[in-house]
Amino acid sequence: MVEEERWVMQGLRQLTAEYDVAVAELIRTNLKAHQLDIPGTVYFDEGLDHLSDFYDDPRRAYYVLLQNEQIVGGIGLAEFDYFESCCELQKLYLSDAVKGRGLGYDLIDYIEKCARELGYRRMHLETHNNLQTAIHVYEKAGYHEIPRPESVVHSTMNRFFLKEL
Fold first, then answer.
1. Which of these, 94, 89, 135, 93, lies nearest to 115 by C-alpha position?
2. Among 105, 95, 93, CA closest to 43
3. Comparing C-alpha atoms, which of 41, 51, 61 is closest to residue 158?
4. Spatial CA neighbour of 26 closest among 99, 100, 79
């Protein structure tokens, strides 16, 4: 597993405009596979095709995971002002080619480290019942389910989690 972790760390790159199209495709492919290519999800967000613009902010970060120069994953964070000193874990997606290898945990560990470095003390996330594997990963990574916050952006999401960093 240490070798796998090293590969992940070496394969991480900060999101730039050159990766925007591939990241949007990865996200849409995953959502469609889980019947979440519907309004009220990131699938239809106006900025999905230009995520690097959104994450070009000192309070935000997004990283892509490359394998053989192909994007096989991504994860990000952005401020979430509903809770004090809180950010939101955003857009954790992996391609089918690398799922089941524990990479989601590695990406979560990495983005939590980034969150702490940015001064965040909590991390929130939203997901959906259709994403049972993701829910399992989040719970195993220490996230605890909470009631729906009032400031949820994606109205279709129906599961909400929080972790103290």
1. 89
2. 93
3. 41
4. 99
pLDDT, one tens digit per residue, over 31-80 is 999 999 988 889 998 899 999 999 999 999 999 999 988 999 999 999 99
The number of residues in the chain equals: 165
| CATH for 2-164, options being 3.20.20.70, 3.40.640.10, 3.40.50.1100, 3.40.630.30 | 3.40.630.30
Q: 74-133 pLDDT, tens per residue? A: 999 999 999 999 999 999 999 999 999 889 999 999 999 999 999 999 999 999 999 999
Q: Are 76 and 112 in contact (CB under 8 A)?
A: no
Whether this prediction's pTM lies above 0.70 is answered by yes
Q: Which two tokens stand for residue 156?
A: 């279709």
- Cα 85 to Cα 51: distance, rounded to the nearest angstrom: 23
Do the Cβ atoms of 88 and 124 come closer than 8 Å? yes
Phi, psi of 85 (to 5 degrees): 50, 45
